[in-house]
């Protein structure tokens, strides 16, 4: 069973046209993983906190960026505001409101030093959207504006954490201040694109996809031939990240068009909002097409009707019965 996490990665609306059909009752416009812990605090009615320098407990071991830190118990009373310190200053892009943040982190309780969660033991950074209602308010205020490559330590009092009710499942009381250390590895927004090497597109039976990486939607040129009968999933740009497994959740940019007409029916680029989803919550062609592909890549997927919507396309989607769909997908990260 997957360890419960403080992070809640909510899925933006708009992925309706990719939801499974038939007997699959899942809805990809809802939360990706309903078994994840309630990590995001409710949108705070409290005013924005003051950002203060301390106090903050010492990091006694694992002091370098990317190392699992050991943090001492808090000494004395914590601030009732948000104490934030940049321990290691990075030089990358600043985190902006609404970004998806890729980071290693550790969280513990001020008074006892009890560790609530950490990503270092699993050797896999985690992702949270830094936006109101998507993650803890203390994270939002502490991490916005920090640069990738930075280690940030901060203390979150109840007001901008789990409130007076605390979180019994995690063992956090309504009076507990929490201490966090974040190593910010990357940040993604609506202009993020694949990163890697262009791959020759020399199969005349497969659509040619643009290789621009400026955050704009790539072009999709459909061949003037009959669509393939079987699934096609080819690299357009091959990244060097981890391979995606069939049961994982990914953060993506994508555009979908109908083979016969070339008409676009769905696009994260038009919504200016990235999307995350489980490969088990989408049509079979998506899940099969992205399984085994590397993070950082752009993939062209041609989905025949039997692996798409068949004769039951979503109402109002602009997809006709028995349509072959073509997608260009940038795999930005694994969740």
Keywords:
7-stranded mixed sheet, Chitinase A, domain 3, 7-stranded antiparallel sheet, 335 residues, mainly beta, disordered N terminus
Describe this structure in words.
This protein is mainly β and 335 residues long. It has two domains: 38-188, Chitinase A, domain 3; 197-334, Chitinase A, domain 3 (Roll), CATH 3.10.50. The chain is built from three helices and 18 strands. The chain has helices spanning 137-143, 268-271, 284-290; strands at 51-52, 59-61, 70-71, 82-88, 100-109, 115-118, 126-129, 151-156, 178-188, 197-198, 208-209, 220-221, 232-238, 249-258, 264-267, 275-278, 298-303, 325-334. Strands 1, 4, 5, 6, 7, 8 and 9 form a seven-stranded mixed sheet that branches. Strands 10, 13, 14, 15, 16, 17 and 18 form a seven-stranded antiparallel sheet that branches. Strands 2-3 form a two-stranded antiparallel sheet.
Instruction: Return the string of H and E elements.
Output: EEEEEEEHEEEEEEEEHEHEE
**Please, how many helices?**
3
Q: Tell me, what's the shape?
A: elongated
Low-confidence stretches: 1-5, 7-39
* Helix-and-strand structural type: mainly beta
Q: What CATH architecture of the largest domain would you give?
A: Roll
The CATH class assignment of the largest domain is: Alpha Beta
Strand content of the residues, in percent?
25-35%
Q: Report how far the terminal alpha carbons are from each other.
A: 16 Å
